[in-house]
Design a protein that fits this description.
It is found in: Cytoplasm. It comes from Agaribacter flavus. This is Phosphate acyltransferase. By secondary structure, the chain is α/β, with parallel strands linked by helices. The chain folds into two domains: 157 residues, Isopropylmalate Dehydrogenase, CATH 3.40.718; 155 residues, Isopropylmalate Dehydrogenase (3-Layer(aba) Sandwich). Helix content is 46%, strand content 16%. The chain starts with a strand and ends with a helix.
C-alpha cells in the first residue's frame, strides 16, 4: 500500500487547532498508509498529540512553525511576511515533494496567494479555481466552480475551469463524459453578459467536453448536470446561500419536531427519514474545497469547520492524491487546449 503524506496546517480556522484532533485520529485509524505532518506551533502540535491515541503517533510528525497567518491578514502581507508560517510550511512541503498534498482551514485569500506563488499553475491554466461538491435532488453530487479564487474571470478562464471540473468529476466519480453547464441568469441564448456569451461559444467549440449549455441558479441542485461553471464572485455567493438554506432547513426541522407532543411522536416515527435528510443536507460532508489548476494538491477546509467537517477535508485530500488529480488535469489541458 503506497504511503500518503499530508501536510496539515492546524493553525488556521475559527475554532482553534484542537478541532483537528478527532479528525486526525479518525483518518489515521481508517488509513494505516496515511502519514500526517502537523504544521503548527510546538505548543499546538503537542496539544493534538496529547489527544491522539499513542498507537497512532508513528503516523504523525511535527513541523514546528514560528508564525501564524491571521484570519484577517491581507493576502499580500501574508505572502510577503509569513514565510515561516504554518500555512507556508505546509505548501513548501508539497512543493519540495515531502508531502503529497496539504489541507488548511486558514485565511482563504492568503492560502490562494501563497499556493499560487509556491506551487505555480499548470501550463495552460491562467488561474486556479476553488471547487466543491454539492448535493442534488438525485443521488449524485454536482461540482461547482469557481467558489472565490478569482472574483473576475474572462471567457478563457471559464473554459479552463470547465475542463478542470470535468477532469475532477471523471476522476472522483468515474464518469466517462460529465455534463458541464455554464451558470447564467437564464437558459436562452440571448441571456447573459458578453463574458458569459463568449464563454458559451468557446465551450461549444471544445470537443473534450460534454457541454449542455446554460443553467440557472435553481438548476444547480436539480441533478441534471455534473459540473456547473461560473466566476468566483457568483460561485461564492451561490455556495454560501446554499449552505445557509441547508442550515435553515435542518434547524427548522429540529424546532418543528419539538413544538408539540404530537410533533414529537410523529418525529420519532419519521426519525430514519429525518436522519437521512440531515445526512444529505449536512454541509459538513461537503467540506473540503479543492484549489485545482496548481502543480500540487491543496484542500481548503471551511474556517468554521467542525471536527467532522475537518475529517471530510482530509478524506478529500487522500482521494485526490490517490487519483493523481493534478497530473490528470495537466494531461487533459495539454491535449485539448495547448495543442489547439
Amino acid at each position: 500500500m503506497t504511503k500518503v503524506i499530508i501536510a496539515l496546517d492546524i493553525m488556521g480556522g475559527d475554532r482553534g487547532p484542537h478541532v483537528f484532533s478527532s479528525a486526525v485520529t479518525k483518518i489515521l485509524s481508517e488509513y494505516p498508509n496515511v502519514h500526517i505532518v502537523l504544521c503548527a506551533t510546538q505548543l499546538s502540535a503537542n496539544e493534538i498529540l496529547s489527544k491522539v491515541p499513542s498507537h497512532l503517533h508513528a503516523q504523525l510528525s511535527i513541523e514546528a512553525c514560528e508564525q501564524v497567518v491571521d484570519m484577517q491578514m491581507k493576502p499580500a502581507v501574508a505572502l510577503r511576511k509569513m514565510k515561516q508560517s504554518s500555512m507556508r510550511r505546509a505548501l513548501d512541503l508539497v512543493s519540495n515533494q515531502l508531502a503529497h498534498g496539504c489541507v488548511s482551514a486558514g485565511n482563504t485569500g492568503a492560502l490562494m496567494a501563497m499556493a499560487n506563488y509556491v506551487l505555480k499553475t499548470l501550463n495552460g491554466i491562467s488561474r486556479p479555481a476553488l471547487v466543491s461538491s454539492l448535493p442534488t435532488r438525485s443521488d449524485k453530487k454536482v461540482l461547482l466552480l469557481d467558489l472565490g479564487a478569482s472574483v473576475n474571470c474572462d471567457a478563457e478562464n471559464l473554459l479552463q475551469y470547465a475542463v478542470m471540473g470535468s477532469v475532477l468529476k471523471q476522476s472522483c466519480d468515474g464518469l466517462h463524459a460529465p455534463k458541464v453547464a455554464l451558470l447564467n441568469v437564464g437558459e436562452e441564448e440571448i441571456k447573459g453578459n458578453s463574458v458569459i456569451q463568449h464563454a458559451d461559444a468557446l465551450l461549444k467549440e471544445c470537443k473534450a467536453l460534454q457541454y449542455v449549455g446554460y443553467v440557472e441558479g435553481d438548476d444547480i441542485f436539480a441533478g441534471e448536470v455534473d459540473v456547473v461553471v461560473t466566476d468566483g464572485f457568483t460561485g461564492n455567493i451561490a455556495l454560501k446561500a446554499s449552505e445557509g438554506i441547508a442550515k435553515l432547513v435542518v434547524e427548522e426541522l429540529q424546532v418543528l419536531t419539538r413544538e408539540t407532543l404530537l410533533a414529537r411522536l410523529v418525529s420519532k416515527l419519521m426519525l430514519p427519514l429525518l436522519k437521512r435528510l440531515y445526512q444529505r443536507m449536512n454541509p459538513d460532508q461537503y467540506n473540503g474545497a479543492s484549489l485545482i489548476g496548481l502543480r500540487g494538491i491543496v484542500i481548503k477546509s471551511h474556517g468554521n469547520a467542525s471536527a467532522e467537517a475537518c475529517y471530510y477535508a482530509l478524506k478529500q485530500a487522500i482521494s485526490e492524491i490517490n487519483l493523481s488529480v493534478p497530473d490528470r488535469i495537466k494531461t487533459k489541458i495539454e491535449k485539448e487546449l495547448l495543442e489547439h
